[in-house]
Amino acid sequence: MRVDELSLTDFRSYPRLEVAFGPGPHVVVGANAAGKTNLLEAMVVLSRGGSHRARTDQELIRWGAPAGRVEALVSREVATSSADRLEVALAAPGPGVRAQKRIRVNGVGRRADALADALRTVLFAPESMALVSGSPSLRRDELDLVVAQLRPGHARALATYGRALSQRNSLLRLIRDGSADRDQLTYWDRVLVEEGGTIVEGRLAVVEALAPALAAAHLEIAPGELPLLVSYETNAPAQPGETPADALRRRLRETAEKEAWNGQTLVGPHRDDIRFTLGGRDAASYGSRGQQRSIILALKLAELDLLARRDGVAPLLLLDDVFSELDPDRRAHLVRRIGALPQAFITTTALEDLDPALVAESTAWRVAPGRLERIP
Questions:
Q1: Which of 317, 299, 332 is nearest to 291 (CA)?
Q2: What is the pLDDT of residues 102-148, one digit of tens each?
Q3: Contact at 8 Å (CB) between 97 and 124?
Q4: Are 186 and 249 members of one domain?
Q5: DSSP 3-state assignment of 366?
Q6: What is the DSSP string of 234-300?
Q7: Burial environment of residue 136 by CB neighbours within 10 A (0 to 12, 13 to 18, 19 or more)
Q8: How many domains would you assign to the chain?
């Protein structure tokens, strides 16, 4: 997939930007805080409907501006005749007016999950380096991003589950304080089970599909390492004959007393995790820093492979200042993969920090606050 044209209006540090990109790798050079990450973030917004680093959509609007907009012409093939025009428009809140977001695909209003059908992305950012050893929420979020691009409805299930979880936890606190009755949980239990079952089912299916691609990518990157396995660790494992929804319903019954005592939901996909093991040992606990980086790089390459097999065309790869985090061997593997992609964007503070072979085949751009200029 390719972004052929990108237009930004009052987005982050860009008052106005209109730029056309060709195929192949693009290297974006600039000082810290110049706007490199903002450029990649705009492409993430166009593929997900939201940012990977902003807490609210309002943060995406340039300071002092009433609204912001991101628009792009995206193509799957070399010819742009089959291109889609994507638009995400944001309006800041005002007196008596809530913040608003409008999403359009080819001029037609759509939900956020429709964007992934037109533009699939794989993002490799500095925060990705904590995927193995960091919080389980990081691994859940990473997996959910892949699932949402492969299974329609996953993003909606996550949103509905999140709202139900919040309402259920509020009700559990009232029950703990004696201000509500347990019978009032019935509705939220049903929503939690239905949506939670859908979420777990999707995650399990994608982990199963991802596992062989991950093992193969890891063998390519680190041929001398122990075999890498990935597994989905759920707090509601299904017994023989149970669906994920059945298992979650049963676990809610089993933990009912404890939940009422604690005032919060103790089981469900919001507490699940993804586990990486090397030779049977937990990589988060026993893997070295280098081994963990190999796993993370292999995971990103496996995501690329999985999405490419699904669509018949590779997704857009976004690399936000990560080459400095990798040793020469891992960089070389990444460079080889980048060269085979329809398009990729790589940010750096200096061209000298990148592999010379990658720089030679890339289109180079220099970013300054509010501007993007091609380097001859």
A1: 299
A2: 999 999 999 888 898 899 999 998 889 999 999 999 999 999 999 99
A3: no
A4: yes
A5: strand
A6: -SSPPPTT--HHHHHHHHHHHTHHHHHHHTS--SSGGG-EEEEEETTEEHHHH--HHHHHHHHHHHH
A7: middle
A8: 2
**CATH code where residue 12 lies:** 3.40.50.300
Tokens of 189: 């239990």
Distances (CA, A) of 64 to 59, 60, 88, 175, 370: 11, 11, 19, 44, 15
Identify which of 25, 8, 12 has the alpha carbon closest to the alpha carbon of residue 358: 25
Dist CA 78 CA 4 (whole Å):
10
Residues 41 and 143 placed together within one structural domain of the fold: no
Round to whole Å and give the CA distance between 319 and 346.
5
Q: Are residues 171 and 65 in the same domain?
A: no
How far is 121 from 351, CA to CA, in rounded Å? 24
The three-class DSSP label of residue 178 is coil
- Do the beta carbons of residue 278 and residue 227 sit within 8 Å? yes
Tokens of 183: 């019978």
Q: pLDDT digit string (tens) for 297-355?
A: 999 999 999 999 988 889 999 999 888 778 888 888 888 889 889 999 999 998 888 88
Residues 6 or more apart whose Cβ sits within 8 Å of residue 241: none
Q: What are phi and psi of 159, to 5 degrees?
A: -65, -45
* The residue to which tokens 């559990």 are assigned: 172
217 Cβ neighbours under 8 A, 6+ residues apart = 297, 298, 299, 301, 302, 305
Q: Which helix (H) or strand (E) holds 121?
A: strand 121-124
* Residue that is written with structure tokens 């991003």 in the block: 145
Q: Is residue 369 in some structural domain?
A: yes
What single-letter amino acid sits at 93?
Answer: P
Report whether 37 contacts 110 (CB < 8 A). Answer: no
Alpha-carbon 157 to chain mean position: 16
**Residue 165 near residue 268 (C-beta atoms within 8 A):** yes
User: What residue numbers bound the domain in which 243 lies?
Assistant: 130-314
Contacting residues for 351 by C-beta, under 8 A, at least 6 apart: 27, 29, 359, 364
The reply to whether 75 falls in a domain is: yes
